[in-house]
Amino acid sequence: MDFFEVALTQRSIRRFKPDPVPDEVLWKVLDTAIRAPSSGNSQPWIWLVVRDAGKRQAIGQEVLRRMEASGGLERMRQLAAREQDPSNRRIWTSAANFRTDMAQAPVFIIPCLYTPGVPAANQRTLNGGSSIFGAVQNLMLAARAEGLGTSLTGANDDILRAELHLPEDAVPTCLIPLGYPDGERFGPTTRKPIDTVTYWDDWGAAKKQG
After folding, report:
1. If you compute the radius of gyration of the chain from its CA atoms, what whole number of angstroms results?
2. Residue 160: which of 81, 91, 61 has the closest Cα?
3. CA–CA separation, 204 vs 206, rounded Å?
4. How far apart are CA 111 and CA 172, in angstroms?
5. What angle do CA 22, 151, 42 make, to 5 degrees?
6. How far apart are CA 207 and CA 198, in angstroms?
7. In Å, how far are 8, 43, 160 from 166, measured between CA atoms?
8. β-strands 176-179, 107-114: how paired?
9. Which residues is 48 bridged to in the sheet?
10. Would you call the peptide bond into 188 cis, given omega within 30 degrees of 0 as the criterion?
């Protein structure tokens, strides 16, 4: 696929077919992820690929439990019910439904910041994030190019550590369910117009015409 077609049609996919993702496709997507730049070329990452159904179920159930306990799931449903715009209503409904059954995705990928000997607290910084989220986006774009859907989702440290035996100095940054879309389509996506979020040479300055 053309790069711009990949980038302009990537969107969050939250319903997945049970079809397994071939090993060679996963390796290709992961190899694309690690080509991203990082601070000082430190490459401070480990990529956990979770296909075990029991582990995915345990992680998904804990995400659901926390969402219900915090009231987040109910807020999503209320926002969907109040939303007048059909597109936004679908987004909130899809997000709520996704949390109830994350384990439907045949693969979870958990990118972890990991620099042996560096305390976890030192990795939970903006600089730490800047060294891995370029690679995360590489992974998601590569998945799109292979016809795979992804959704960037928050990680719950406790359950990930318990299920996947993470060491103390490994910091899970997010959780990415991955699989072939089931009834959902890729973009084009709707975003704010570029000229409303871009300034030239000075804060608040629009580009001069001519």
Report:
1. 19
2. 61
3. 6
4. 6
5. 80
6. 9
7. 35, 18, 7
8. antiparallel
9. 110
10. yes
The answer to whether 131 and 38 are in contact (CB under 8 A) is: yes
Q: What is the helix (H) or strand (E) element at residue 163, kind and residue range?
A: helix 157-164
pLDDT, one tens digit per residue, over 33-72 is 999 998 888 899 999 999 999 999 999 998 888 888 888 8
The Cα 93–Cα 184 span in angstroms is 13
Could you tell me the pTM of the whole model?
0.87
AA identity, residue 193 = P
Is residue 59 within 8 Å of residue 103, measured between CB atoms? yes
- Give the Cα separation of 143 and 98 in Å (integer): 19
Q: Which domains does the chain have, with CATH numbers?
A: 3-196 (3.40.109.10)
Share of the chain above pLDDT 70, in %: 92
Q: Could you give the angle at which helices 72-82 and 53-70 cross, rounded to 10 degrees?
A: 70
Give the mean model confidence (pLDDT) for residues 132-143: 96
The 3-state secondary structure of 48-104 reads: EEECCHHHHHHHHHHHHHHHHHHCHHHHHHHHHHHCCCHHHHHHHHHHHHHHHCHHH
Kindly report the number of other CB atoms within 10 A of residue 12's CB atom.
17
Specify the pairing of strand 170-172 against strand 107-114. Answer: antiparallel
Q: With contact defined as beta carbons under 8 Å apart, do 121 and 115 qualify? A: no
Centroid of chain to Cα 104: 16
CA distance 206 to 123: 37
The DSSP secondary-structure symbol of 13 reads: -
- The answer to whether 160 touches 172, Cβ cutoff 8 Å, is yes
